[in-house]
Amino acid sequence: MPRQSLYTPEEVHEALKDKNFMDDGKYLERNHHIWTEARDLLPKMTVDYLWIYITKNRNDVSSRIHNVPKLKVKNKKKVCNISNWSMNDNKHGLEELKGTIHFTLKQWNQFGLNLKLYKDGREYEVFEPGWTDLIYQSLWENFKIPCPFKFQSAKIKRNTEEHFLMIKGTCIECQNNINIYSVNEPNGDGIDIIVSTFDAKNVQHYKKRQLRGRTREKVANILKGQSTYMYRRNVANQRMHFQDQEPADLFNDYVLRKAKQQQIDKELCLEPNTNEVVAVMSLKKILNTVEVFERLEPIDYT
């Protein structure tokens, strides 16, 4: 999805070409009145966003305003540093683990990129809720990592010299750090992401990732037709091999039972902490619907 900029680079340059944001080779401080004056010329931008836009020389606008020649580099390519970024944080003496996961274009589209506009005018592409579950599933399938990682927000940057995708995470139990990144944007074949972490397969883990959002609703719907015990058994048979630790998204039985019951309560319009009168009225409303009424059969008292 292409970004919709507040102003084109030409519009920004045209509005600010007579301004001087530098003094003695340095940009003026953020609290200088020049930034407020510039904001008045570009009202869709906040002062903070404008300050970043100019000081970071986005779209080469600052260089054009201050007549600084742009540095020309022929055939400049993005540098891929495949060293393990987590090596300085090894608290357990574990061996480093590095590898690549390939997502097809169809799999990549499941992450659902959307454009998010913040109040200060910043625009970023973000994944749809539930993307961390997809990431962890891929980590388990490829590396059998049992760590219940908590991931930070994914950083996506297009048309820059930086990596296209950067994700950092930490295991909430053993504090194992993980870095996930991709140098290039996806193409017709999909995208390759590089994983850098420690091999914690032999570290016993007891904690699990949270069951929430779309994953919780999906699992709860599956549980309608089977017990939580059978669900866990089927998932374990599909995803685990002999002597594997449990994946962090093979949720505990009591968590599954609660998710199942909450889904049933939701369908019956029984919200948590609902008193008896409201519960009866909700049930009466459901029974009066045509779909339910047609399924009711008269009781034969003979």
TrEMBL record:
Superkingdom of the organism of origin: Eukaryota
Name of protein: (apollo) hypothetical protein
